[in-house]
Specification:
Radius of gyration of chain A: 26 Å
Strand content of chain A: 15-25%
Structural class of chain A: alpha+beta
Number of helices of chain A: 8
Helix content of chain A: 40-55%
Order of helices and strands of chain C: HHHHHHHHEEHHHHHE
Strand order of the largest sheet of chain A: 4-1-6
Order of helices and strands of chain A: HEHEEHEEHEHHHH
CATH architecture of the largest domain in chain A: 2-Layer Sandwich
Largest interface: B-C, 51 and 39 residues
Strand order of the largest sheet of chain C: 1-2
Shape of chain A: elongated
Number of domains of chain C: 1
Number of strands of chain A: 6
Chains: A alpha+beta, B alpha+beta, C mainly alpha
Oligomer: heterotrimer
Largest sheet of chain C: 2 strands, antiparallel
Distance between the termini of chain A: 62 Å
CATH class of the largest domain in chain A: Alpha Beta
Number of helices of chain C: 13
């Protein structure tokens, strides 16, 4: 009969109208900024640099390997390596970034920098209310603004942060064990005739410096696994 | 700028080929009214212009003009690594980023011969079909918005879309620009909590489809506006290379999921709806029916999804250099056949990166469909092609 | 007490006017009535605009405006201020006098229609014997203002839009009139007060409203369709649709003139709803005898608001009809049914009281409706379809 479809449509709309007063399913508006949707854990907005401990400069995990700079699709990262070394969180001297700038207005939150970083140094933050009135530099974040503590990382991405910490602890254990083994071997060699002592000492240093890189390779393999 | 020997007048405001004789004869005498519809379009599909010549209310000539959203994607990809192009594929057909990712990953996997673990395939199917649901619901919503139903069906479609976008965010980290598929699998595994979330959303979707159908399908005004309008004959559709719901609405049985059986689609039972008339009503009903079929596929995938890794263990993220060769990977995207053609020369960047955009190819028959219709129908026919300018212009 | 509540405005007016000398009292009463109408209906317009936005919002699963004032109650004030402070652009080529007069004419004409509506007991501003005729004559003049708007803009597209709008309004005038002629036939008078009086009787507590008879129900439905088309509301709002190419007749208007067009449209809607309520729904009479404690003017406004809610509901659900479909619908469907309705009304009168006339009249109307529906749909070759599947 003519008009039946129209009546069905009118009924549907009336049902939605009445339903909007009784069920939240039919009135899905969230009155931002007074109400907010519960944040989803995996969300990603813009990168930040992770540091361990209290001091952001001493504890920064980044060693300025520039892998993220090369892989970034819109090329929004700018790194300048330092000329000196500073001890990192494990106590070993590492180069660090003298400059680490990310232009947030160019960054497209693709997370490739996080994927390729071998040192778990850069992660994605969840802050999106970042408007600024400074048109020229307001969205260009430097090293200091980008550094946030590991506690912050735990707060925004608890599961991920827990996994990363577990992995880093595991690597530290492995690295320590390896260093101990190398040191023991070197000590054993040193106990031998003193003629062999000289070449032994540089070997100990090299072993200590070489240690972090195998840990990094292990991280890479784990990321893909 | 005309040479006297051959009368080629170049009118920069009009598109090339404008001055050829029209395909149908105007009824009355007098000049044709020439109009440019767009690029600030009355309907919601993006920056797109149609130059139409009208005889009274009838369309005599129509030329689509696009390129307003050209962002140089294909050339940029030649300077970036394969992985770096992945986030840019999200931005092609920005309503369906996951299927774009999948098509690209498929093309690269064909190039390198990588294996994809089973769990990843199941996840790809679930996400692909969820994307299809989102796209078809929004397409129908936008079409009814253009018919003048002041946004009510659109709001219902977007209510469901929000739930699905929340699912995407929980898994991939972003609602739309997901950057999720990788060559050899998916970037991140799905937790059981996420799969339970999909099940919960899926349980509410058939009710939404029923609501939509009730609101629209037997509505006499929708039938009057959409039936018999913008008819596309199957021979023309096949000759012009039309794919997707437009082709199936004209009655041609061609669904790449059934033809190529890419991924693990041969394990799922689903039907392909076909239309008989090829008009606007058929196109939008086919989309609605395909949405229902997608619900069934997601249901089957959720039941059968195995455990295991989601990424090929031999895959390399950095230093990825496929051997020299070429590959064409295509999928049944929600808008049609989305294909990526890659030529590799052994280096880290592709030598040639070409996208087959379904929206662009489906637009080539716009004039043939609109000839002789009213101006009010042109907007509807254009909406029923369901394009996204990001894909048309890349 | 009930009497006092019912006649409160009349008593108030008499009291105010008693301060003036006897010769001025009658003009002063009339003036007070005019002022009352001009004050009340725009206030209800503001309320209706807000109701529309919130109603549409709720139908679409969202809130309507709710930021300006509690529940968005001050939104119309904000809208009014916005239209007042916008720049008033008159196109260079436009005919300035006609361009200015078009919205003025619209507003004047729609307010004049209220003069004959019986808003409550003894509350008709001008008690004319041919009130219905006056209302329709005045209502037709609103179409003139639409054409003036399109013509004065000197814009090809506005003119086309205006001509389409005028064609639509003229085609739907005929069914509008024809459906009310049935009421006139049954009452035997063109005076709106007499029509309300004829419906203001009760049998077993149920009123004698014309909508409760078969011919009255059909007439009411047809009147509603024609009224929707007259006031350019969805689904007949192609002339002012935003997603159509050819712009509407009020494209060239900005600022307060646009607000006046808007005001004119809604006040016109309320006027024609008032007329529909008077003709079919018993005007100011209460639905049940015992509910007569509620003052009559409250019932009248309640019926108008009900009609407005129906308009909003239909707008939120239905898409637009295309121009030619709209005209086809008017001439080939609505008009024949209104003519048939006249015949059925006559049959009703001649059959005398009893159950037989109910059965016969309902059967004739229903049969005709279904038949015309089927024929119309088959001719246009549309109907629900079923789809085949491939495996």
């Amino acid at each position: 009969m003519l008009g039946e479809g129209i009546l069905k449509g009118l009924g549907e709309t009336a049902r939605n109208f009445a339903g909007s007063f009784v069920s939240a399913e039919r009135l899905t508006t969230v009155q931002y900024p007074e109400e907010r949707i519960a944040p989803i854990e995996a969300t990603r907005d813009f990168p930040f640099l992770v540091y361990d401990g209290e001091d952001w400069q001493a504890g920064m995990r980044c060693v300025a390997c520039q892998i993220c700079e090369k892989e970034c699709p819109p090329k929004c990262i700018y790194i300048v390596k330092s000329t000196d070394k500073k001890p990192d969180a494990l106590g070993k001297p590492q180069i660090y970034p003298a400059r680490f700038d990310i232009d947030i207005s160019v960054c497209m939150s693709c997370q490739i920098c996080v994927e390729v970083c071998p040192f778990e140094a850069i992660k994605m933050d969840t802050e999106f209310e970042l408007s600024t009135t400074d048109r020229f530099g307001g969205l260009l974040y430097d090293k200091k603004e980008l550094s946030k503590s590991n506690e912050h990382y735990h707060k925004v991405h608890p599961t991920e942060a827990a996994e990363v910490d577990a992995r880093l602890a595991e690597e530290k254990v492995k690295a320590d064990a390896k260093a101990k083994a190398v040191a023991a071997a070197a000590a054993a060699k040193a106990a031998a005739p003193p003629a062999a002592a000289k070449p032994a000492t540089p070997a100990v240093e090299k072993a200590a410096v070489v240690a972090p890189i195998p840990a990094a390779k292990a991280v890479e393999e784990e990321t893909k696994g | 700028m005309s040479s006297s020997a051959t009368d080629i007048s170049v009118d920069l405001a009009k598109p090339p080929g404008w001055n050829r004789p029209p395909l149908i004869e105007p009824d009355g005498e007098g000049e044709l009214l020439e109009l440019a519809m767009g690029p600030h379009h009355p309907s919601t599909h993006g920056v797109f212009r149609m130059d139409v010549a009208l005889d009274g209310e009838r369309v005599i000539r129509l030329k689509p003009v696009f390129g307003y959203l050209h962002r140089n994607h294909e050339k940029l990809a030649e300077g970036m690594s394969y992985l770096a192009s992945m986030p840019f594929t999200d931005r092609l057909d920005y309503m369906c980023p996951l299927t774009n990712n999948w098509a690209y990953a498929l093309a690269v996997e064909k190039l390198t011969g990588q294996e994809v673990p089973e769990r990843a395939e199941y996840l790809r199917v679930i996400l692909g079909e969820l994307t299809r649901v989102v796209n078809h619901a929004s397409a129908i919503g936008f079409l009814t918005q253009e018919m003048g139903a002041s946004g009510t069906p659109l709001m219902y479609a977007f209510r469901e879309r929000e739930k699905i976008l929340d699912l995407f965010e929980a898994l991939t980290g972003a609602r739309m620009m997901v950057n999720y598929m990788r060559f050899g699998g998916c970037r991140v595994d799905a937790t059981p909590a996420w799969l339970a979330g999909v099940r919960k959303v899926l349980d509410g979707l058939p009710k939404f489809a029923d609501e939509f159908e009730n609101l629209l399908c037997s509505n006499e005004i929708v039938m009057a506006r959409a039936q018999g309008v913008g008819i596309l004959r199957p021979e023309l559709a096949v000759n012009a290379g039309i794919t997707g719901p437009m082709l199936r609405a004209s009655g041609v049985n061609y669904d790449i999921r059934k033809v190529d059986k890419y991924g693990i689609y041969d394990r799922f039972k689903f039907r392909v709806p076909l239309g008989d008339h090829g008009d606007v009503y058929d196109r939008f009903m086919i989309r609605l029916l395909e949405m229902r079929e997608s619900f069934g596929i997601i249901d089957q995938a959720l039941k059968d999804i195995p455990g295991g890794p989601v990424m090929d263990p031999k895959a390399k993220v950095r230093g990825f250099r496929p051997k020299a060769g070429e590959a064409y990977g295509r999928i049944e995207g929600p808008k049609g056949e989305l294909g990526f053609y890659l030529i590799s020369d052994g280096g880290p960047n592709p030598y040639r990166y070409r996208i087959r955009p379904p929206s662009l190819i489906n637009l080539t028959v716009l004039e043939d469909m609109c000839l002789g219709s009213n101006v009010a129908d042109v907007v509807l026919i254009f909406g029923s092609v369901d394009i996204v300018l990001g894909e048309v212009d890349r | 007490m009930i009497e006092k509540a019912d006649q409160i405005f009349i008593l108030l007016a008499h009291w105010l006017v008693s301060f003036l000398p006897a010769s001025l009292q009658h003009p002063a009463m009339v003036l007070l009535g005019v002022v009352a109408i001009i004050a009340t209906f725009p206030a209800i317009f503001a309320l209706t605009v807000l109701l529309e936005r919130k109603g549409l919002g709720r139908m679409q699963n969202r809130y309507g405006p709710n930021r300006v004032g509690p529940y968005g109650l001050f939104q119309p004030i904000a809208d009014g201020l916005k239209s007042l402070t916008k720049e008033d652009i008159v196109p260079f080529n436009a005919d300035a006098v006609v361009h200015f007069l078009a919205p003025v004419l619209l507003v004047v004409v729609v307010f004049m229609g209220y003069a004959v509506l019986p808003i409550g007991r003894n509350m008709t501003l001008v008690n004319m014997d041919a009130g219905l005729l006056f209302f329709f004559a005045i209502g037709a003049s609103s179409e003139l203002s639409v054409f003036m708007a399109g013509w004065s803009s000197r814009n090809k597209y506005s003119l086309l839009g205006a001509m389409r709008a005028v064609a639509q309004m003229i085609s739907y005038e005929v069914p509008l009139l024809m459906s009310s002629v049935a009421v006139v036939m049954m009452t035997g008078s063109l005076s709106l007060n007499k029509i309300v009086d004829a419906q203001n009787q009760y049998t077993y507590g149920l009123p004698h409203w014309y909508v409760f008879t078969p011919w009255g129900f059909a007439g009411f439905v047809l009147f509603a369709i024609a009224a929707t088309a007259e006031t350019n509301r969805s689904p007949f709002d192609l002339p002012e649709g935003e997603s159509e190419l050819v712009a509407g007749y009020f494209t060239e208007y900005s600022g307060f003139k646009f607000a006046l067009f808007f005001l004119g449209e809604y006040v016109g809607m309320m006027g024609i709803s008032g007329l529909g309520a008077t003709l079919f729904l018993g005007g100011y009479s209460a639905p049940l005898k015992m509910l007569e404690v509620v003052p009559s003017w409250i019932w009248f406004f309640a019926k108008i608001m009900l009609a407005m809610c129906a308009f909003i509901w239909v707008r939120g659900t239905l898409p637009r009809l295309r121009q030619d479909q709209l005209m086809n619908f008017a001439w080939k469907f609505v008009l024949p049914l209104t003519l048939l309705n006249l015949v059925v009304a006559g049959m009703w009168r001649f059959m005398g009281d009893g159950w037989l006339r109910w059965v016969v009249c309902s059967a004739v109307l229903l049969g005709a409706y279904v038949l015309m529906g089927r024929v119309g749909m088959r001719k246009e070759n549309f109907g629900p379809r079923s789809y085949r599947y491939a495996e």
